[in-house]
Records
---
Amino acid sequence: MRVVSVQLRDFRTYTRAEAHLGKGLTVVHGPNGAGKSNLLEALYFGCTGRSPRTRNERELVRFGAPAARVVVQLADGSRAHELSVGLEPGQPKRMSSDGAPVERLLDVETRPLLSVFLPDRLELLKGAPTVRRAHLDQFVAALWPARGADRRAYSQVLSQRNALIAGIRAGRASRASISTWDRQLARHALVLREHRSTAVTLLATPFAERASQLGLTGAASLDYRPRSRALDEEEFVAELQARFPGDLERGFSTHGPHRDELALLRDDRELRSYGSQGEQRLALLALLLAERTVLARERSRTPLMLLDDVMSELDSQRRELLARELSAGGQSVIATTDLAHIPGAGAPDVTRLRVSPGAILQEALAA
């Protein structure tokens, strides 16, 4: 599955625009503020129904316009598909796949997988553990689509247990029923923990290799740190029961996979605390490339990579390595202010788009 084109209407700074992507590398270039990041954001939004940059979706609608729309044309061999998202502030998003309304684009089988590198995404390394947990769960769902339901099931049971704790604190519910929710929570928690652990194991070696290739000094590693050490359901229930007085005092469940951590390390020290911003950028890029490698191997589906301002802090050797990695298979879109930063940008197999405020010019479309 590959993206053929994206059409934008009243999205960010674009009134109307269209961009065609090549089968391999597409380079988007133009001055700062021209709309390069907006184009990458539109590609992500059109394929997922959400933005990688903001939670306030009103920002996506061009100033003064009533609504925004993004349409993505796809090709799967000789078969064509279409995804579309319409956004009117204050109204539910209108999403469709091949013209049929859908609740979630993430559940559409013909949707391409995506991986995105934006400067803002350093929050994945620098931010709270919840950001890394969510990212890991998204990777699990991309790797094994059916397992995404296990994360949702855990969240539902956790919500029910928290509601019961609130009821007990308020004197509206009995403690007698907590054991039922403890057992359900334990069952789903162990499944979720196993999914995450298996995913991190698959990522460990390619992450270390990509980090080394990109120039991150020292030994890079991933460390999944589950809150529970229970070996079975009974042990997990016992952990929950031991912590129940504290849960009751705080008003919510304090134990379980919703408190787990994923640490990115260099020489066994967390890059979150001990890495420079440049080292954190390299680690994030290495993680995304590792995920791409695993997905290509395990699912025979290579994610579309969206990379914004990724080359500026790499030396010429690392740029060459990254360019070769991206050219090895699958689609990639790189945004840059300077074409000279992209090795091989002028090659005939590279698609080039020049962006100026509100407009996209197709300079070259690779066959």
---
Amino acid sequence: MNQLRVNRALGMEDPLSSSAPQGLRDVLNEEAFKRKIAVERKRTERCKDPFLLMLLEADAHSGARRGGKNLDNVVCALLPATRETDVIGWYKDQAIVGVMFTGLAPCDKSTVLSTILTRVSTALRNELTFDQFSQISISFHFFPDEWDHDNSDRPSNLALYPDLQSSKESKRLVFGLKRTIDVTGSALLLASCAPLFAAIAVVIKVTSRGPVFFKQQRVGQYGKRFMFLKFRSMYANNDHSEHKEYVTKLIAGNAERISRNGRTEGVYKLANDRRITPIGRFLRRTSLDELPQFLNVLWGDMSLVGPRPPIPYELAAYETWHRRRLLQVKPGITGLWQVEGRNRIPFDDMVRLDLQYATSWTPLLDLKILIRTPAAVIKGAY
């Protein structure tokens, strides 16, 4: 890609062609800037046009007062050097300056970064002394961010989600209450279900070869992976390719409902999965195979209520907006989707229910979902 194509992708035929006079530009405060980032993420999810977040931070060793003065000078340099459509504001008040380069056309990221870095560096050198310039660190963050599926720690780029972090801080007490309910509830259920655990384990070992527990990597909050537990309901060493193919179609909206007996309207699931053992079908219909997940709740990987955690190959098929279901709350054993529609609704509707839960969550809503869950299981949901 040549320089002209990059400039056109950035909307910059000339470095200063669409810059506005400094007095006509607004520098957003921290709250407004973070809100703009959230809005721009949703716009990108809808329009597919990526944006770039650039963060400029003063060296911590330069001192708060001196660093703040340097950043004021940085803002003065950025205003005439960026486009009128770019958004400038405080990512962290008087500590980190942010610029969102919006409306970028999809193109080679490294070339775009090089072009913007050159433009910004030139503007800063003209405004700052050499000592001041050397104390400024610059980082770049593209959205959609590329979640590293090989990284089991935390593939999402949290710099792009400052609004979620702020919300988490403001709701620290209620999330603490949720965690208390999770620990207390899972511990009590594990203790009371111990005889049932033992009985299921014996039946699984007697009826088929293989371990009692099925262990699988799942994707939790912020894309962090964890070891997910269930009672084994399938034959050991089976092929997952058929399931992978079906869920890929399901996520893309191309899957058809499958009827288990040929008479019902069917569900969005491999209802006639030959990998499942006879006792496994009973465990799945009654949701008894889910009981070991109370250990995942106790360990902090899951909550009693929340979105279901996807398999990594499911995450790889997600649209950008689908990822939001993994960002705001921990995954859960049950949730709004399980009691409202379960496998009878398309994948996009499931995600919308998860997002509805994440934005309207309260301890009372969790209680209502928990109360409704046994009835959903009794109705014979798969």
---
Amino acid sequence: MRVIPVIDLLNGLVVRGVAGRREEYRPIRSLLVDDPTPIAVARSLVERFDLNEMYLADLNAIAGANPAWDVYTQLIEYGLNLWVDAGLTGLSSARRLAQWTASGQPLAAVIAGLESLGDAHELPAIVDLIGPERFVFSLDLKASKPLTLAPEWRELEAEAIVARVLDAGVRRLIVLDLAHVGMGMGVGTEALCSRLRQLDSDLKITAGGGVRGPADLASLAASGCDAALVASALHDGRITMSDLAQYGLPSSSQDQTKTGNT
């Protein structure tokens, strides 16, 4: 199982999530770095943990602002394989994200969050546009309940939504319960991830939100997850390089070509 560090970006700074209550997010405090700018935080994570993948939640873009293209450029030119959730709402925003590059390098993963996507009927075309190898669907939950604007999904449980997105061509999935983010209460989606694994043994499942330490990583691995999103536990020292070594890290180097910066 791979571990992918998370950057929550708000107003140009890396912030710490608090149960999805974005008005309460404040610049991150970290044992690794004093500077909350994204490139400083990214460098600290690479230097300490030898990782070359990173998930970036662009909170301003998710709220409707323009994506932070300059930040994406900095991180990609530093050598990161960058996953980005920029509040993809439909085909138009999907096209911008799919076609954008920095120094000829595209985003490693373009994420469509359940909370942002407005029309479920557009999903097959979005998957086709971005390509199933780069497209990632984020099953956004709040206290186990799906967060969605799409009328077609409002009355559905999480597993039913995933069954439909699989039919639309999705092959990579994030499971994220915002109520657990930054709360030190564990991820809480292990049972759901196990059930989703039964839907499709080839589905790539990444889970996050609330990882406290090595025991949570072990629990996610046992539930069939391929990767875990981790933020606070890396910055607080609750997960160390020796902990990550149990999962065959440096995580990305087993599955992708390592960059020169890592």
